[in-house]
Amino acid sequence: MSVVESLPSRPLEPQELLELNGAEALEMAVPVEDEGRVTGVLIATASWVKGLGFDADAGSWTVVEAVSLGEGVERVDALQTCEAEILRFRGDDPDDLTAADAPGTYEPTVDGGE
């Protein structure tokens, strides 16, 4: 069973993403969202990076982009490529995003810590 086939037919809860990130078959699984339910996720192994998007109309996950890691292809570049394709899949133009609304700008806070 592939990773995509193992995902529920709905967005992922944060705890489910943590479980996916701990899967032995993957080196990493990170959300595109900064918080809340996950509808875009980047997954990676030593040999590839894939961008997965949840299609609400179909009620299923799909591989939006896949990049093989090989000679001359750095993981960070593959992650950025897949993230941009997830954004396009959602109808957003990654070139129009500002730093303030781009994925990865969420800064979690610790309650009672300051």
UniProtKB/TrEMBL annotation:
<feature type="domain" description="DUF7964">
    <location>
        <begin position="3"/>
        <end position="88"/>
    </location>
</feature>
<dbReference type="InterPro" id="IPR058270">
    <property type="entry name" value="DUF7964"/>
</dbReference>
<protein>
    <recommendedName>
        <fullName>DUF7964 domain-containing protein</fullName>
    </recommendedName>
</protein>
<dbReference type="Pfam" id="PF25912">
    <property type="entry name" value="DUF7964"/>
</dbReference>
<feature type="region of interest" description="Disordered">
    <location>
        <begin position="92"/>
        <end position="114"/>
    </location>
</feature>
